[in-house]
TrEMBL record:
Pfam families, sorted: TetR_C_12, TetR_N
Source organism, top-level taxon: Bacteria
Presence of keyword Transmembrane: no
Region (Disordered): 1-25
DNA-binding region: 51-70
Full protein name: TetR family transcriptional regulator
Keywords noted in UniProt: DNA-binding, Transcription, Transcription regulation
Amino acid sequence: MAEKSVQEPFEVAGDPKHAARATRSAGRKMRSLLLDAASPLFRERGLSGTAITDIATAADAFPSQITYYFRTKEALFVECACRDLLYLARATEQAALKARTPREYTHALAETVTASDSIAFFAEALTLTRRRQDLAPLVERTIERLHAEGARAYAGQVARHGWRSLRAPDESSRRFWAVAIGVILEGYAMGRSPEALCAEMLRVLGEQAKSTGEAARLRLVDERDGSSHQNEEE
């Protein structure tokens, strides 16, 4: 009996369900490795300038693994661009966590977004999906997640600091990313620097929210000024 109980863990480890989980885990790891290898190549060389064999070599994988997990090079390109955009969104949220005022918050977001080429990369994926509608659902899910997470992060900052938002969080998030995509694409076409892109984003965005603390201090100053003027007149 004792000998049987010792063997039981090995039998459980060999269970088909365990094997399936292990296979899924290995599959996710390989997909991630292929995405990691493909992304910098696509960003540097573009879709047409990057061969499947180049990606396989960079990932220490076989070309057949790329077609197995992603079917086509175009599908891999779009998934890379979508993933990189969501990584950028996460980075902007992290950069803005230290902000203490609405102005600092908007500056941190704009500076982080314009310092990266992820939006330009994503724009290439958008153009590709116009001709490949089978790839459009991934882009759609990415944009939905981008807006949802942006709205959540912005609402959290507003609640945390007690700011008075000028727009609903969802509207603010959508507006921010629409401005970012438009300004960055126009700027890339005209050869503008990241600093110039950031300045243009800030100009177009304007005020996103107001700090209630600052507003209160401003009213207090006005009241003092008014009383001092009144005393002078008397």
